[in-house]
Specification:
about 200 residues; alpha/beta; five-stranded parallel sheet; globular
């Protein structure tokens, strides 16, 4: 087995985040990531990557195991979602295994897009450089007609270049990524505890 996806896109599915991701962010990001990689980009998105009859928890775990990195659409409520935290914990567990965030391997495997205030982000997210897309987090068709949309389209290529660098620097695929269970908070060194926890 090998990698199947360049990116696992992790986000809150409810409105406004879900609609913003699918109507605004994803179409431009996928196109520009393909340009940055000089080939079509493979992005796992739950709405498109899980089909009728599949067991979606297992499908999500498989998609994470076969993705080179995770792009998270970060907001305070993102870190209140058990599924979003688990998705991050799995990729963070891999980062620790390969020694990401060190001088030898500075690039991590978690890439954040901030769409709301970061005060309540988890400690890991607060200490990781993320793309600031909060000015562009506007739901609905009016965004297409606003001057902000032009700025948004100009911001996406630079972000896609950053993600392409992470994709290229991802370690060789390992069967170890096919972990049968989601790592516990303890396995992730307490970095994904509740934001109300003193450790954050």
């Amino acid at each position: 087995m090998a990698y199947e996806n360049d990116v696992f896109l992790s986000y809150l599915t409810e409105k406004p985040c879900g609609t913003w991701v699918h109507e605004h962010f994803l179409p431009y990001f996928k196109h520009q990531l393909g340009n940055a990689l000089n080939r079509p980009a493979e992005i796992f998105v739950d709405r498109e990557g899980i089909h009728s009859g599949q067991k979606w928890p297992n499908r999500l775990k498989h998609a994470l195991a076969t993705s080179r990195c995770l792009v998270g659409i970060w907001s305070p409520l993102y870190f209140q979602s058990e599924w979003c935290r688990n998705e991050c914990a799995i990729m963070h567990h891999r980062e620790m295994k390969i020694g990401s965030g060190t001088n030898e391997r500075p690039d991590g495997l978690l890439v954040g897009v901030r769409v709301n205030d970061g005060i309540y982000f988890h400690a890991y997210a607060r200490e990781t450089h993320y793309a600031d897309f909060e000015p562009f987090f506007v739901d609905g068709p009016g965004f297409f007609r606003s001057a902000l949309h032009v700025d948004f389209q100009r911001a996406v290529p630079a972000f896609a270049d950053d993600v392409a660098r992470v994709v290229r620097s991802a370690p060789d695929w390992s069967a170890e990524w096919l972990t049968p269970a989601i790592p516990t908070k303890e396995a992730s060194a307490g970095r994904w505890h509740s934001p109300t926890s003193p450790c954050c």
